[in-house]
Amino acid sequence: MALHLSHAVSDGLRRTLTRTGGTLLAGFLLIQFATQAAVNTAVLGYLPSDVAGQFSANVGITLPVSGPVALALFCALLPLSAAFFAVVARALVQPFEELSALPADATRRLGRTTVRLLVGGIVVTVLIFLGTAFLVVPGLFFAVSFLFFVFTIAVEERGLVDGLKRSWALARGSRLKLFGIVVLAGVFGGFIGVIAPLFDLAGAPVAGDAVTIAASAVFFTPYYAIIASAYLQLRDDPTGHDSPEPVDASGTPRL
């Protein structure tokens, strides 16, 4: 199937700079803030009191709750995050002219979709981890092949196995171009991995968490919009052959 990566990037950025893009950015910020704060608080809460006292100065954003409560909050955030990504996928594939608001059916069958995304996320993460641990290349291959699984499950409402197969099929023939999208996420991860410790060394872990959360939200909103645009191109290409002009994904009708 044909993929015009430059068009996916430009169309994805256009989708980000809409009211829907702004709403999703706010959602990313809230979920990442809550997750980071819950993790930090849970870690402190389960450390011995003397160790926690020494370690607290190096911990970033925390919540005024106990460790067990923070752990429960983190567990609750896992399905909430999966549900949010389902909404993200459904929102970003709307026709461009309808991106002034979230789609009315963004939460349709959300419970079932959330479970599938949770399980699928675990499966994909394990495959990527194992592939990377052995020879690196298999991990990258899996990351590229399952790049669209959130969209095939949330937008097309496929089952777990069928959704993974569908993502694999969509990526076929375009993996080299999609590899660039995966590498972009890896580069960003490396950037965050370098920046965050600098704030810790400067004695400003809270600022480090804040910068990391903000940077992640600003990055991942257009990142998923670009993936959404690439998904629309590949989903709606009936021929499987390169076309002379990019497919206008912004005008794609809803499923």
From TrEMBL:
The chain crosses the membrane at residues 24-47, 67-93, 114-130, 136-155, 176-199, 211-232. It comes from the Archaea. It holds the Pfam family DUF7847. This is DUF7847 domain-containing protein. Residues 3-234 form the DUF7847 domain. Keywords: Membrane, Transmembrane, Transmembrane helix.
